[in-house]
Amino acid sequence: MIVGTGYVGLSVGACFADLGHEVTCLDIDVAKIEALRVGRMPIFEPGLDTLIERGMRSGRLDFSTDYDEAIPGREFVFIAVDTPTGAAGEASLVGVDAAVSRLAGLISSGAIVVTKSTVPLGTGDLIGRILREHGAKDFPVVSNPEFQREGSAVQDFLKPDRVVIGSSDEQAAGRVAELYRTFDCPVIISDLRTAEMIKYASNAFLATRISFINEIGAICEKLGADVQVVSHGMELDRRVGKGYLDAGIGWGGSCFP
Description:
By secondary structure, the chain is α/β, with parallel strands linked by helices. 44% of the residues lie in helices and 11% in strands.
C-alpha cells in the first residue's frame, strides 16, 4: 500500500509489484489516478511506464482514491506524499499529517506504517502520536528513507547502494527488511531518528559537494583554471571520491533545499 503518487510513490509501488507484491497506490488527486488507470503517466521516469503496465497486467498493481477501500487488510502502508519546502525553508508535513490522520482508523491489526517521504528528524514520532490520537495505539512506525533521484528512480530503487530501516520495534523493522531480501546491498537497521538523520545528512552532504565545486568553478573562471580538470583531480583522491563534483547551475528539486 503506497500513499502518494509522486515519482517516489509510483516508482516504489511499481517496483514492489514487479518483485511479486500486491500493491495499491493511493492518492486524493482523482485526475491523476484516472490517468494512471488508463496508462497515462503523470511524470517521466525511464522504465517506470513499463513496470506500471506490467504490474497492472499481472493484477499486482492497482490505483485508488478511496482510503476506505484501499487501506483495510494491508500489511504495510508506505507514506510517500510530498513534503515541499515551506515559506520559512522548513519541510511542510501537511500532507503527512493528513494522510496519517485519514488512514489511522482504517489500518488492520498487525499493519506497519512506513515513512518513505523525505521528512525532518522526529517525524516518525509525530506519526506515532497522530496514530494514537486517532485511536490506532498499537501500530509500529518504521522509517525507510528513499535515495532515489528524479530521472533514475527505478534503477536507484532496484539497485540501491544501501537500504536504511529505522524503528523502535525490532520485529517491524525486520518485516520491512524482509521486503528487500533479494537485494544485494547493505541493510542498515537503526532507531527511527537515526534513519531519518541518515537521509538528511546524505542530502546535505551531496548539496554541499555541488555548492562547493560551483564555488571552485567561479574561482577558476576568474583565475583562468579549468574546473573540469580540477574536479577530475579531486575525484581521484579516494578520500574525496567521485560524484556530485560537476560544476554547473547548482541544485534544486524538492529534497536538497
